[in-house]
Structures are given as C-alpha cells and as structure tokens.
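Homework help board

Subject: predicted structure for assignment chain

Our instructor gave us this sequence and asked us to write out the predicted structure in token form, then describe one feature. I got the tokens but I'm not sure how to describe them. Can anyone check?
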Amino acid sequence: MEYSATELIELADRQGYIVLSVNSSYVEQIAYDLLQRVCVVTINANDYVYYKVTFHQFYRFANAESKGWFYNYYVRGRW
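My token output:
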C-alpha cells in the first residue's frame, strides 16, 4: 500500500505516534513519533530505535516497495 503524506499524518494517534504493520518477510512493523522524530523498526521481535528521523525519511520508508531492502540500504548504520 502506498500512503500519501496526509494519510500517514491522519494515522497518528493523539500523541502523534504512527504505527504501521508492514507486509515484509524481514521488517514486521515501523513506527514514527511525529513530535520527537523517532522511528522504531521491529525486526524479529526486536525494536531498533532511530533518532532525528525526518518525516520525509519515514514517508519514503513507509512507501518503499521492499521494506527490508530499504532498511538495509538506507536505514541500518545510516540513521
């Protein structure tokens, strides 16, 4: 599923937290805190926390065709 920026923002709860369960064999879930700019990626029941993540970076991750590829190429060791 592809999200518009508006759709992602509308998914946020009252505290500004967005949680997306994703269809991936590697990444289980991605979450984003709009206010704190924190992204949490769940892989194999482990949470990996990334700070100072822009909404644009989260938007690109949420809309990546392959979440696992995006994570390995753009996130791990870079955010």
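Reply (TA_rk): Your tokens look well-formed. For the description, you could write something like this. The two ends are 24 Å apart (CA to CA). That's the kind of observation they're looking for.
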